Amino acid sequence: xxxxxxxxxxxxxxxxxxxxxxxxxxxxxxxxxxxxxxxxxxxxxxxxxxxxxxxxxxxxxxxxxxxxxxxxxxxxxxxxxxxxxxxxxxxxxxxxxxxxxxxxxxxxxxxxxxxxxxxxxxxxxxxxxxxxxxxxxx
Length: 138
What we know:
The protein is mainly alpha-helical. It has a single domain (5-130), classed as Nucleotidyltransferases  domain 2 (Four Helix Bundle (Hemerythrin (Met), subunit A), Up-down Bundle). Helix content is 75%, strand content 0%. Helix 1 (5-32) runs antiparallel to helix 2, helix 1 runs antiparallel to helix 5 (109-130) and helix 3 runs antiparallel to helix 4 (83-101). The longest helix is centred in the first third of the chain and has 28 residues, at 5-32. The chain is globular. The chain starts with a helix and ends in an 8-residue tail after the last helix. The model is unreliable at 134-138 (pLDDT under 50).
């Protein structure tokens, strides 16, 4: 995606804002007991955060797995990002897939609550990296 720098920066900010919105939505849905929807919104929070990072790197992806692979290959494998964040995105994706496509998903309130905490940490890590910090150790 070729964008003027101002437009690219605005889109990065929008994606990070979307990540925060999806995370808050997920928390509200979990509170209401809507586990499927909470899992979906948790993943999309991670998705928007990682896609902001990808855009900062000048990359866009047509598939979710492409975006996840980018995170692993360009940031986790290179040591720019702790491996736990790659795991968080992968597991949030798996939760979302199960919630969206299984008739009876095996999701618990506790599992989704833990995932929301992990995704919140991931979103903060993406914010730090996008802001210019080269290594995230938190």
